[in-house]
Amino acid sequence: MSDESTMPSRRGSLLSINRWLVPLLARPRVAHALKYIVYVSLLVNFAWYVHDDYFAFRSSLPAGAPVLDILAQFSTSIDTAAWLGLVFLFELETYTLSDEAWTKLLAILTRAVRVACYVMIGYAAYGYTAEALDKFTYTEVAGVSDICDLANEHTSLLVGVIEYVEITPENCESLSDDSNFYRFDGEISVVAESALKHVQFMGIIDIVNAYVWLIVVFLIEVEVWLQTADRFSSPLLSAVRTANALFYLVLIGDGVIWFICSYYLYAWDAFLWIFGFWAIELNLAEWEIEREHELRLE
């Protein structure tokens, strides 16, 4: 596999992700070990997000909240489950299953599951959008100028994107020095004035991240389709790879913002998913090398 004679042409511009992944194929065992380490890490992150979403749901929504509000609160978990499904399906199509095992029935079933994943991802993107925009609709908590005024009301303070702390007589003095507090429409928790703009800004980052990922996975779908058709020299394939690399830069920028803002789990998750889809890109690069070699022998 590392024989230079089997290597395809230089895969377009320097911005092509495939161009930079090809050298890993010289160490296939290492490359694939790293790939599966990433996949296992994604599963662990999924479990962590379910835990976080559940705690946020218990802290922010009242009993009897509408089902749509509850689903929106779990948008991260729904989103992650769907993305895991897509990674699994791409892994089957681009690496695990041989051409002989790729039957018509299996192709139909795979497409059906993939459509279901995209529906979930689309709904999760809606959830991110709705949740972020909800943060711009709020009312001031009347008659409260000190956080300790809420200490006996079984209320939580939003201190981060989804981090809530219950306000008690024992901890209230250490929670906030603000004198103005707000309540987002439909929620029972409160947010201090100093944290409001931050929460709103991070919501916008969530929206950008969600829709850029949709673009990235659409471009990967196009890339798979072009490779299936043996259109390795297509200008469209080169353009798709270059565009995808640019959108990956946006995703990396989101991860850097989360890191700077001390959302280390979000930053870790962002880069982990980038590596997860680069693993699919690695499969595509290996597939292209093998297919071009076969075409030269025909």
List keywords for this structure.
single chain, 298 residues, mainly alpha, 2 domains, five-stranded mixed β-sheet, 9 helices, disordered N terminus
Compact summary:
It contains nine helices and five strands.
How is the main sheet built? 5 strands, mixed
Rg from alpha-carbon coordinates = 23 Å
- The ordered H/E elements are HHHHHEEEHEEHHH
Number of helices: 9
Overall shape: it is: elongated
Low-confidence stretches: 1-12
Please describe what this structure looks like.
The structure is a single chain. The chain has helices at 17-21, 28-60, 67-73, 75-96, 104-134, 172-175, 193-228, 235-260, 264-297, and strands at residues 138-140, 156-158, 164-166, 181-184, 190-192. It has 298 residues and is mainly α. The chain has two domains: 16-137 and 194-297, no CATH class; 139-193, no CATH class. β2 (156-158) and β3 form a beta hairpin. α4 runs antiparallel to α5 and α7 runs antiparallel to α8 (235-260). The relative contact order is 0.14. Residues 1-12 have low confidence and may be disordered.
Fold blueprint:
Blueprint: H1 17-21, H2 28-60, H3 67-73, H4 75-96, H5 104-134, E1 138-140, E2 156-158, E3 164-166, H6 172-175, E4 181-184, E5 190-192, H7 193-228, H8 235-260, H9 264-297
Parallel strand pairs: 2-5
Antiparallel strand pairs: 1-4, 2-3, 4-5
Helix pairs in contact: 2-4, 2-9, 4-5, 4-9, 5-7, 7-8, 7-9, 8-9
